[in-house]
Amino acid sequence: MIAKEGRLILCGLLLFLFPFGIYVHASEVKILYYLYFLFGSFYIFTIYFFRDPLRKIPFDTSAILSPADGRVVSINTVNDNDIGESSQVISIFLSIFDVHAFRYPYDGKIKSVNNRNGSFIAAFNHNASEVNEQIVTVIKSNSFTFKIKQIAGLVARRILCYAKPNEVVQKGDRMGFIRFGSRADIVVSSKIKVCVNVGEKVKAGESVIARI
Question: Which residues form the catalytic set?
Answer without folding.
Answer: 182
